[in-house]
Every structure is written in structure tokens, then in C-alpha cells.
Amino acid sequence: MPKDYAAEILAGSTTAVARLITWLEDEDERAYQCMVQLYRHTGKAYIIGITGSPGAGKSTLTDKLTRHIRKAGLTVGIIAVDPSSPFTGGAILGDRVRMSEHNLDEDVYIRSMATRGFLGGMSKATGDVVKVLDAFGKDVIIIETVGVGQDEVDIIGIADTTCLVLVPGLGDAIQSMKAGIMEIADVFAINKADRAGADQLLAEVTYRVEQDAHIKPTDWTPTVVKTVAVNDEGVDQLWEAVKEHRAHLEENGKLQEKRRERTYRETLRMIHSELFRIVREQLENSGQLDHIVEEILDRKLDPYSIMRQIVSKWLSISPK
Amino acid sequence: MPKDYAAEILAGSTTAVARLITWLEDEDERAYQCMVQLYRHTGKAYIIGITGSPGAGKSTLTDKLTRHIRKAGLTVGIIAVDPSSPFTGGAILGDRVRMSEHNLDEDVYIRSMATRGFLGGMSKATGDVVKVLDAFGKDVIIIETVGVGQDEVDIIGIADTTCLVLVPGLGDAIQSMKAGIMEIADVFAINKADRAGADQLLAEVTYRVEQDAHIKPTDWTPTVVKTVAVNDEGVDQLWEAVKEHRAHLEENGKLQEKRRERTYRETLRMIHSELFRIVREQLENSGQLDHIVEEILDRKLDPYSIMRQIVSKWLSISPK
Predict the structure, then answer these.
(1) Which end of chain A has the smaller Cβ count within 10 Å, N or C?
(2) CB contact (8 A) between residue B270 and residue A303
């Protein structure tokens, strides 16, 4: 009789959690039944997203924040998503677990995620892992990721509270790259705030936040806190800011609304990847795609017509 | 009678090109028929990818490189892809056209791309625009993009020759982010080479390139050139390096091989987006998704089972 991994996860087995996550990363069919079983045990965890440029100190900040969350008696799951994974298989964050000060605390589960697979694979897998850790009983789940690129933006969309980590002196170009992502931050951490330029950056961000609030009034104005994560300075305030944002969301029914939108996007994403997975499998295994590609290369066919033909042949629903 | 934009593009109308690209960005249905018509006129352009961190000087380098390509009597298309676009609509690169020294040269077509839409939208749209400029008759097409994130990596996968721009002093973290992307570079430009640390970076990259060639022998060892793009120094060597790489690819039948792989990925990606377009249309317009989401939120249903149910209902071919 095969092991019931979902039951083992619900009973607290970290081995089973690790195994399931590997299956999810590998798109192993065995993950499916586990996820079906685990889903109704989800929805309790609070999800924090931590994003920022490479070198902003996200890992250290996550580690110190975890210390404060643990002090509050809560358990923590950390998912470090490595954007370089399409090539390196996650080498950069490979040591993430070992690097953490919490690696011996059994109430903290840390996992680096490397993604193989096609587009959107990273955000889909992250969403799945969040559910695993949620069902596993972690009170707070932190997703740590570099905030550039569309897939990373989708990853951050999974969080209830998003924290953008900025540091003084990383250069204008890099900061401006964040211009887009500033719009989704609920809390800003000006990290390495003992460096020159911290107050200026604080002033800039605060000004920007207030201006945005003026232009597009919302009922939450992002909090800006200064931190020196490596010395655990200001991290308590960051935790307070996260709690305030959470309270705000919960008071106004906004948390439910946010989760509805997330579930909406997530369900679309799942259906889409499943369809694509099957279509791809068929096209590749039958050798059909190889044949089509030759015709396209010879300009006997064009990929645009082919795309529509295949899709309409495969789907029994008739698109307009 | 509607205008035949494809014919106008083939006849040299930049207005028609601009219109079609906007349709592509907007996923306007009218783009489809144009692309079908244009496809058989593609395959002649040589495609160069220029990638690197924000602040590496990619735009200046592209501009100077264009000057050398123009001197060789070739026409140029430049596509500047803005990774921040999911939010800002491409504000950062919005002035790319105005900033170029070639903005009055009618043999240089420059376009910034902002993407709206779902995952993979950016790489799909870039692939489409490359085809438009190819059919439009540009001899060389340069794609300029920041090299972080899976979608950006896919964008660079469109190029025949990929040039990674590195600069001294941008910090270890950022350089190491490039570790993955180093593997796809055919040519390295150490830009801003008049800065302190340029020789050290040159030595590091050269060492790395030689080591890689040792570990995983290939028949092309990436060229490393020093440039000071702003003064047009070393850009001639960069252009020589690109031409050498091109000659290498063409001699060995590798270009055809590379384009076959690209067409393979591209065709898959097109089917991927087409599926998504239809999935979304069907689920959203019927209000079906809203209903499902409520049930999922209430934990009456799980998204995993739903996904399989919908997919098996929709697919006219039974998987496996």
C-alpha cells in the first residue's frame, strides 16, 4: 500500500513535506492527489512577500523577521524563490537553509525553490508550496523573491502583505526598476539604514508614497520603516507594520477580497497549465511538433495559423 | 475595404509597422491576419540580443553598435523591452526612441515595448515584433533587455547572437545573478571599461569563459571585449565579435539548428498563449469562474480537482 503523504504532512512529517515539494517542482503526477487532499486544510496561514533587488538583504531580513514572529509564538514557513533557476537549478539560493539561524528550529520550515518547466512554472509551484506549508500548520509563510520580471511579480501577488526592501546606494537605475513594483508594496523596508543615503532614500520613498496616496486614494498608505537587518535593528517595527497591515485587511473585509482575487488568478493559471501540459505532451510525444516546426522553418506553414488550428482541434469548446 | 497593413509593411510603411506592433501589444485580433501574411517574408534578418543589469549601458551600447552596423550598409531594427512594464506600462524606456542618435535615420527603426497581459506575454510579443521588423526588411534586429527573470531569458533566447553587458563595480550580488545568464552569452562586453576594476572583471570573465569551455567543450568560446560605449571605444570590436560568431554559426549549420530550436519553443509558446486566451475568455465571460472561485474559497471544492475536471471536459482528445 502506498504511503499517504497528505496524512503524514497533516501529522507533522517534514520528510513528507520535502518529498511533496520535490514532486511539485518536478511536476510529478503523485503531487496531484496529495494537493487534492491537503487543500481543505489551507487558508489559515498569513502570507508575507519579501521582495527587492539582489543584495538588498532579503534573506537576512527574513531571518530576523522570523525571529520576531517566533517570539510571538507563531510558527513560520519560508519559501526562497530563486529567479536564476532556469539555468543554475537554484544554485544561488541552494545554501539558503544552511544559512538560516533557524535551521534547527523545528517550528520553522525553510525551502529554496528552483523551477524547471515552462512559463509561469515558478509562480504556480510557489502557490502550491504555500498551500503545502499552510496545510502543514505554519502560521506565517514568508515568500522571499527578487522582484524583477513578470513571473516574480505573480509570485508576490500570492502574498497578503508585500514588503519591498530597498537599500541606499544601489543606484538610481536599480531603484527606478522598482518603480513598477513600488505600487504593490504595503510596507517598505529601507534596509542597511546605517549606510550613507538612508535618510534621503527614506524621504524619497515617503514622499512617493504620500504622493501616490494623494493621486490615487486608497485606505492603506504604505508604512516605511528603517532596518539594519544584520543587527536586528528596526525589524520589530517591520513586524509591527506587517501586523498593522494585516489588521487593516481583516477589519475591512479586504483580506477576503484579496484572497478571492488570488484564487481567481490561481485557478485560471492552474487550468491553463494543465491544458498546456497535456497539449504539449501530445504534440511532443507524437513527433507532431517536430514535423510542424520543419514546415514552419521552410515557410510552408506559418506558426500563427498552426497555433489556431491546433487549439481549435484540441478543444471541444468553440472559441469565438 | 479595410487597409491591408501587411502589404503596406512590405511596401515600407513605418506607420503600418507602428500600428501592427501596437495591435500585438494589445493582443488585438487584427494583428493575427497580418502576421499570417507576413510570416513567409521572414527569416532574413540577423538577430542580436543585448542584455545586462540596469545601468550597464545597454542603450548607449546598442546605439553605438547601430552606428557600426549602418556604416556596413545594413539597416537596423531595435526593440527595447522594458521589464517593468507589467506596472508602469513601459515608462522607463518610454523615451528610448527620442534618446537615440539614430532617430532621424529612416533605415533604423526603434521601438520600446511595454507588455500588458499574462505570463510569457513579453517574450511572445517580442518574437512577434522581431518577425514584423524582419518582414519589414531590416537586416539586423537588436533586442535590448534586462536579463533577469524567466520571461527575459526567453526573450534573449530569440537572438542568434547574445551579448551580455557587464560593468565594473556593480557589486558581487548583481554579477552573480548573472551566473545563470553567463551560460547563454556568445559575446561579453565589459562596458564602462575606463572605470576602476575593468581589468579585473575582464580577467574574471575570461577565466570563467575558459573554464566553462574546459568543463563543457563547445565549438564556440565566447569573445570578451572591452568597451566604453559612451565614447564609441571598442564597439567596432564588439561588432567584429558578433560577425565572427555569425560566421561561425553559418559555417557549421548551427544557425539553422539554433533557429529550429527557437521555432520549436516559439510555436509551443504561441500555443501556450492561445490556450490561455481561450481559457480566460470561456471561463470569464460565462461567469463560471466567479462561481467556482467562491466554492474554492469556502473549501467546498479544491482547485486541483476542478482543474482536471474542466480540462477533461474541454479536451476533445483524451490525454494518454
Answers:
(1) N
(2) yes
* Interstrand relation of A46-52 and A140-146 (parallel, antiparallel or unpaired): parallel
Show the domains of chain A with their CATH numbers. 1-41 (no CATH), 42-252 (3.40.50.300)
pLDDT tens string for chain A (320 positions)? 568 999 999 999 999 999 999 999 888 889 999 999 999 999 999 999 998 877 788 889 999 999 999 999 999 999 988 655 444 444 444 556 556 788 788 899 999 886 555 566 778 888 999 999 999 999 999 999 875 555 666 777 899 999 989 888 765 434 544 455 677 789 999 999 999 989 988 988 888 888 877 777 778 999 999 999 999 999 999 999 999 999 999 998 999 999 999 999 899 989 988 899 899 999 999 999 999 999 999 999 999 999 999 888 888 765 44
d(CA A268, CA A257): 17
Of B154, B162, B165, the residue nearest B120 (C-alpha):
B154
Measure in Å the smallest separation between the Cα of A53 and chain B Cα atoms: 8
Which of A170, A261, A315 has the most B C-beta neighbours within 10 Å, making it the best mutation to test the interface with B? A315
Task: State which residue of chain B sits closest to A149, comparing Cα positions.
Answer: B149
Query: Using CB atoms, which residue from B183, B268, B307 is nearest to A270?
Result: B307
Q: Which residue of A has its CA nearest to B315?
A: A315
d(CA B274, CA B114): 19
CA dihedral A223, A228, A233, A234 (to 10 degrees): 0
Whether this prediction's pTM lies above 0.90 is answered by no
